[in-house]
């Protein structure tokens, strides 16, 4: 395989909102370059990117796919990322190792919440962006509106169109206006990406002349030296102009925008020309920040000899084992090398290494600095780990993943599979850190927490397929709490006589409502010698046992003040267990007389939706007993902030997706507990009694 200099490599992440055409744009690039002989189709499951079983079943991407091709003597490493934010971890990993982001926007649907999210991540990583307005061949395409919206979102003076559709909005779309070359580009209708160029004429000539002049001014303004020359000489030389484009792109003062129809392969070749000539290479970020084994900040330079690589993705494939995808930040990697995992403090022997094109693997002997590759069967290396030379131990920065927003209970359907399920979940978490799992001892459920319902479904599918277990997802029980409205008293005597020593204890107790979030405040105010103080901890344990078990419906008791003020004991029969039992039942008796009630957890939620969906979402929130805290505009989106009971939020992300046609998203986090409505409380108590009876 041909080796490429770092300056000739283009590492980029193909990102954007769901269904914007990223996979088909990748497919068109592969066809243009000759990497594939014909374009695959998503409905047929024949694209190079979406080759996993779950992707073929669902007909959308659920994992990032690494592909490569050559164009104008440059190597393109393309990472095609899922659009659904359920799989945002895939996009974050890809953007972490990319030198720029190719942000794809659908010409009919415009900028979505997913577009904004990946743009934000790319900006945080400090990488340039190129916008592609795709599906220009579709009816009701809105190129001009999308361009205006992109400028409003991402910079009025930064976003600049380098190609303009001439005959967009119809299936025969085949002409674009090239602003840089001032040419009309006409594509052949065979889908192979071939085209011919001719000078623009008539109104198109006037338009392109005006835009070309505007582009030169835009590039000149990005650099003081160029601007001075532009004013002095009235223009820039071709060499200065082209060097200025690359520099302005790196400074993110210039955001080029292209129009394409990926399915018919129109406009794609011109986009690839621009990427090859002006796109970012590893040389543009020749050094990255890292930390030494002592925690000190240092730099990893592209030209240094000792290898440093970042594993941005791991996955297991049938007949292949675990693949670790990585980017080289320094040095070269060869089979047989011994590297050090600075995160896990373990050594790794590098076996076979590969160049990857979707499911195609090509064994190579070496991966050079700046390039992307894959290694197989690393023994203890996982997503986010750094591998480096043991002579120069460094750790590259980690990806900060968003917190999970949705939860479900995992139930095994076959006895004896618990250990296999636990091992499977641990392995899946190592591959995908955006989901977490834990066993909830209070609710007696294994809880999976993920980025969305699709994410949960795909995880469970993988668990079943790879580990051959039988599981299902259920609604998680809600951790309600029990408390009281009024003060109450009780006097409980525990007496048990057996053949030998008996048991005796009498506990007098007062309880009263406590402040919210104050827990259970146990105190004693004993006077005289009726009860030895040595038994106070025993009563305390009895009360805590009752609180942990729950009294009304089996949920923890909170926000109660307890006063153990008197009682009786026997000189022989009183002991620790006797006072634990007396304290336990004394508290239960008092609690039952103190007007008990249930508290439910309330979550803060933030919903990002298009303005035209506002009414439907607000109506749905009302049905969920939601309380609106405020609304604000964010471009063409509305952001609703509300508080909703946790019980009403199960599968809420599916509801939002349905109400907004896939254009909305939400996040949620626990806020506080508050009293449950009486009618719902009775229902929860009845359900708890039915559960206990079974």
Provide an overview of this structure:
This protein has 16 helices and 37 strands. Helix content is 29%, strand content 33%. It is elongated. The strands form eight sheets. An eight-stranded antiparallel beta sheet has the order 18-17-23-14-15-22-19-20. The chain has a seven-stranded mixed beta sheet with strand order 2-3-1-4-5-11-6, sandwiched between helices. Strands 29, 34, 35, 36 and 37 form a five-stranded antiparallel beta sheet that branches. With 694 residues, it is an alpha+beta fold. A hairpin with a 4-residue loop joins strand 8 and strand 9.
Task: Using brief descriptors, characterize the structure shown.
single chain, alpha+beta, 33% strand, elongated, 16 helices
Helix content: 25-40%
Sheet bearing the most strands, described?
8 strands, antiparallel
Distance between the termini: 66 Å
Shape: elongated
Low-confidence runs of at least 5 consecutive residues: none
Reconstruct the topology from this structure.
Layout: E1 9-16, H1 22-33, H2 53-58, E2 65-71, E3 74-80, H3 88-97, E4 100-106, H4 113-124, E5 129-134, H5 143-154, E6 159-161, E7 163-165, E8 175-178, E9 183-187, E10 195-199, H6 202-221, H7 224-233, H8 238-250, E11 255-259, H9 268-278, E12 287-292, E13 297-301, E14 308-317, E15 321-330, E16 333-334, E17 338-341, E18 346-349, E19 353-357, E20 360-364, E21 366-367, E22 372-376, E23 386-388, E24 394-395, E25 406-412, H10 418-431, E26 436-440, E27 445-450, H11 453-467, E28 471-474, E29 481-484, E30 488-496, E31 503-513, E32 520-524, H12 536-549, E33 560-568, H13 576-592, E34 596-610, H14 614-623, E35 627-634, E36 637-645, H15 652-660, E37 665-675, H16 678-693
Helix pairs in contact: 6-7, 10-11, 12-13
């Amino acid at each position: 395989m041909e080796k490429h200099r770092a300056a000739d490599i283009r590492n980029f992440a193909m990102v954007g909102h769901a269904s914007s055409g990223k996979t088909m744009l990748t497919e068109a690039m592969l066809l243009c370059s000759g990497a594939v002989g014909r374009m695959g189709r998503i409905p047929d499951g024949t694209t190079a990117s979406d080759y996993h079983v779950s992707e073929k079943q669902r007909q959308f991407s659920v994992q990032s796919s690494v592909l490569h091709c050559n164009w104008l003597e440059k190597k393109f490493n393309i990472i095609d990322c899922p659009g659904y934010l359920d799989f945002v971890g895939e996009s974050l990993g890809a953007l972490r190792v990319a030198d720029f982001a190719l942000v794809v926007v659908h010409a009919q649907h415009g900028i979505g919440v997913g577009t904004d999210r990946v743009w934000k991540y790319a900006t945080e990583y400090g990488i340039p962006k190129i916008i592609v307005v795709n599906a220009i061949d579709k009816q009701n395409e809105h190129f001009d509106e999308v361009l205006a919206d992109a400028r409003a979102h991402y910079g009025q003076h930064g976003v600049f169109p380098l190609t303009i559709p001439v005959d967009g909005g119809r299936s025969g779309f085949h002409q674009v206006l090239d602003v840089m070359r001032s040419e009309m580009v006409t594509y052949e209708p065979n889908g192979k990406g071939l085209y011919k160029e001719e000078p623009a004429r008539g109104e198109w000539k006037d338009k392109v002349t005006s835009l070309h002049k505007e582009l030169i001014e835009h590039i000149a303004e990005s650099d003081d030296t160029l601007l001075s020359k532009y004013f002095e000489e009235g223009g820039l030389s071709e060499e200065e102009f082209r060097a200025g484009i690359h520099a302005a792109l790196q400074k993110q003062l210039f955001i080029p925008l292209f129009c394409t129809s990926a399915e018919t392969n129109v406009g794609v070749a011109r986009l690839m020309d621009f990427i090859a000539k002006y796109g970012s290479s590893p040389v543009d970020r020749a050094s990255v920040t890292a930390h030494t084994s002592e925690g000190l900040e240092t730099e990893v330079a592209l030209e240094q000899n000792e290898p440093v690589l970042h594993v941005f993705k791991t996955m297991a494939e049938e007949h292949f084992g675990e693949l670790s995808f990585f980017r080289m930040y320094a040095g070269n990697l060869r089979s047989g090398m011994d590297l050090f995992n600075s995160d896990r403090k373990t050594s790794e022997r590098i076996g076979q290494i590969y160049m990857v094109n979707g499911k195609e693997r090509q064994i190579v002997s070496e991966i050079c600095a700046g390039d992307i590759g894959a290694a197989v069967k690393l023994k203890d290396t996982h997503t986010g780990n750094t591998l480096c030379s043991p002579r120069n131990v460094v750790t590259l920065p980690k990806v900060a993943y968003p917190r999970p927003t949705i939860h479900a209970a995992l139930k095994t359907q076959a006895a004896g599979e618990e250990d296999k399920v636990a091992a499977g979940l641990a392995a899946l978490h190592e591959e995908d850190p955006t989901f977490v799992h834990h066993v909830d001892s209070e609710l007696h459920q294994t809880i999976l927490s993920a980025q969305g319902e699709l994410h949960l479904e795909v995880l469970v599918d993988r668990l079943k397929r790879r580990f051959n277990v039988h599981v299902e997802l259920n609604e998680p029980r809600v951790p309600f709490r029990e408390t009281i409205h009024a003060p109450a008293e009780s006097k409980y005597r525990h007496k048990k006589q057996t053949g030998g020593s008996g048991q005796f204890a009498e506990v007098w107790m007062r309880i009263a409502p406590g402040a919210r979030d104050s827990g259970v405040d146990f105190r004693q105010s004993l006077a005289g010698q009726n009860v030895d103080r040595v038994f106070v901890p025993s009563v305390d344990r009895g009360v805590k046992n009752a609180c942990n078990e729950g009294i009304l419906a089996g949920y923890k008791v909170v926000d109660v003040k307890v006063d153990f003020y008197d009682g009786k004991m026997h000189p022989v029969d009183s002991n620790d267990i006797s006072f634990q039992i007396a304290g336990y039942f004394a508290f239960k008796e008092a609690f039952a007389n103190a007007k008990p009630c249930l508290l439910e957890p309330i979550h803060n939620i933030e919903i990002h939706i298009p303005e035209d969906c506002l009414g439907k979402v607000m109506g749905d929130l009302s049905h969920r007993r939601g309380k609106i805290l405020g609304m604000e505009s964010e471009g063409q989106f509305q952001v609703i902030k509300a508080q909703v009971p946790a019980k009403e939020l199960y599968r809420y992300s599916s509801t939002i997706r349905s109400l907004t046609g896939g254009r909305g998203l939400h996040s949620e986090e626990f806020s506080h507990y508050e009293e449950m409505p009486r009618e719902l409380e009775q229902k929860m108590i009845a359900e708890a009694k039915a559960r206990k009876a079974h």
